[in-house]
Specification:
This protein has about 200 residues and is of the alpha/beta class. It contains eight helices and six strands. Bound molecules: zinc ion (ZN).
Length: about 200
């Protein structure tokens, strides 16, 4: 859509956010311009800063500013267990339970044939190499319990088994169709403990 002025351009830019339609985008734009210009500038600076400095951890692929993230660098973590999650938000949900002391691999997505997202796009090769480091003994598949999350878990599981690696899946305490990010901590902790 062609933009006729800065306001339209701002609305179009805000619509890039997930779940934001044209009405909400317009409301945000009006709010920022009318009531919070300082906040709007801070937002634009934070965006530019994050886009410029955030990259992916070499080992687990999550967002970080260093070459390797803090979790991967932590010598206290159990390096024999690797937990595979879809997003950094899912990783945070697991971390908040305090029930997992191992390391992570963050796919930064999920396999979704309908959207043209295949194994390549979730870094399957990188995960296989990471899991084959000789230290990892168990790969816990903690992808979401949605159709796409299950497909992703299945594809990863088959690929890891072909390399002789042991995989487990979170137990079924997590409701079907749910995303970890929105599941309560007790349920996640149980699903983790009862994995098989
Ligand atoms: Zn890392």
């Amino acid at each position: 859509m062609a933009t006729s002025n800065s306001l339209d351009a701002l609305v179009q830019a805000l619509r890039r956010l997930p779940g934001v339609g044209v009405k909400s985008a317009a409301r945000m734009a009006f709010h920022l311009l009318q009531h919070d210009r300082e906040g709007a500038l801070a937002l634009s600076q934070a965006l530019a800063q994050a886009v410029g400095s955030m990259r992916h951890c070499e080992r687990c692929h999550t967002f970080c500013e260093a070459q390797v993230c803090e979790v991967c660098q932590d010598p206290e973590r159990d390096a024999t267990r690797l937990c595979v999650v879809e997003t950094p938000a899912d990783q945070s949900a697991l971390e908040r339970t305090g029930a997992f002391q191992g390391l992570y691999f963050v796919l930064m997505g999920r396999i979704s044939p309908l959207d043209g997202i295949g194994p390549k796009d979730i870094g399957l090769k990188k995960l296989l190499d990471r899991a084959s480091d000789g230290v990892v003994q168990e790969v816990i598949l903690a992808t979401n319990f949605t159709a796409e999350g299950e497909t992703t878990a299945h594809v990863i599981s088959e690929a890891l088994k072909a390399r002789g690696l042991r995989t487990t899946r979170l137990a079924r305490g997590v409701p079907v169709g749910s995303e970890l990010e929105y599941v309560d901590l007790g349920t996640i902790a149980h699903a983790l403990a009862d994995r098989r």
